[in-house]
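Worked Example 4.2. Consider the chain below.
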Amino acid sequence: KVKVVRDSFTMPQSDYALISVLKEKALNGGMHIKKSELLRAGLRLLAKSSPAQLKRAVAGLEKIKTGRPKKV
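Applying the procedure from the previous section yields the following structure tokens:
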């Protein structure tokens, strides 16, 4: 049995919306995919990239503050 790890992370709303877009794309291709499967597939694709490709991909990301917002 594979041990699983639960985690949380922060991302811009526009990036989070891409999850729905990609899930819809998968459905149109005849696949039902979960968010975690989609994220894991993306990690595996990034793992195959060269350091230069990874650097370009990360450089294109918007820098955001991490952590939970303060309660008002």
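Residues 13 and 61 are 13 Å apart (CA to CA). The chain has three helices and no strands. Compare this with Example 4.1 before moving on.
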